[in-house]
């Protein structure tokens, strides 16, 4: 198992202090995996249990992995932000009362910057055969805001990625090393729009085809 060094965990928690986020989820998996998956941020279940992709989106992801003969053990799972971003909202109960509860929300740029050193470390040390970004947050963290999952999904990119220039500023520079990246949609995309399932299935079949080349 690959372990994020404790000082980076402490640094990540410190850098995100004061933002409406909770919990802390390290990446999970081994070094030199077949795939490194980069998601957005943990949801409620993940933040409580400290394990990535164990909620509804994780079940969808497991189906996609199974479709190309892989399981969670073959991949390294991580995300741009390690703490669950939440927002308080009112909710009507069945008896007409209103209560407040926390809902998931997309991470802000500040939160993504706060945890950038953690993903930078993983990118330098995990050495996967291929990186699969799940949704725009992971993709844009690596390639910048002009990269859009709607344009790039299913393509095999051989590219440098962005990493923080220093811990003091939020300036990104391009890595010397190139990485193979195949962007696809976040597994939760099928909950918002069921027709996304066709795109997801096609992308995962392309990821499978790309990996099959290495089995020859
Ligand atoms: N979405 C993510 O990006 N990561 C998780 O762990 C769960 C949902």
From TrEMBL:
GO terms for molecular function: 4 iron, 4 sulfur cluster binding; deaminated base DNA N-glycosylase activity; metal ion binding. InterPro entries: UDG_Type-4/5, Uracil-DNA_glycosylase-like, Uracil-DNA_glycosylase-like_sf. Pfam families: UDG (PF03167). GO terms for biological process: DNA repair. It comes from the Bacteria. Residues 26-205 form the Uracil-DNA glycosylase-like domain. Keywords: 4Fe-4S, DNA damage, DNA repair, Hydrolase, Iron, Iron-sulfur, Metal-binding. PANTHER family: TYPE-4 URACIL-DNA GLYCOSYLASE, TYPE-5 URACIL-DNA GLYCOSYLASE. This is Uracil-DNA glycosylase. It comes from Psychrobacillus vulpis.
């Amino acid at each position: 198992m690959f372990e994020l060094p404790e000082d980076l965990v402490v640094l990540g928690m410190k850098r995100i202090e004061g933002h409406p986020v909770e919990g802390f989820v390290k990446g999970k998996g081994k070094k030199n995996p077949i795939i490194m998956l980069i998601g957005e941020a943990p949801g409620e279940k993940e933040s409580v249990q400290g394990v990535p992709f164990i909620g509804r989106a994780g079940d969808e992801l497991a189906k996609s992995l199974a479709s190309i003969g892989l399981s969670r053990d073959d991949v390294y799972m991580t995300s741009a932000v390690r703490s669950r971003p939440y927002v308080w909202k009112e909710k009507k109960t069945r008896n007409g009362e209103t209560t407040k509860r926390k809902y998931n929300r997309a991470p802000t740029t500040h939160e993504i910057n706060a945890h950038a050193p953690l993903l930078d470390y993983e990118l330098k040390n995990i050495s996967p055969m291929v990186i699969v970004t799940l949704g725009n947050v992971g993709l844009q963290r690596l390639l910048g805001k002009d990269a859009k999952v709607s344009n790039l999904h299913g393509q095999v990119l051989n590219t440098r990625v962005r990493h923080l220039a220093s811990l003091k500023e939020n300036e990104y520079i391009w890595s010397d090393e190139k990485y193979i990246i195949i962007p696809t949609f976040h597994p939760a995309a099928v909950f918002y729009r069921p027709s996304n399932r066709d795109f997801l299935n096609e992308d995962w079949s392309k990821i499978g085809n790309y990996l099959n080349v290495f089995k020859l």
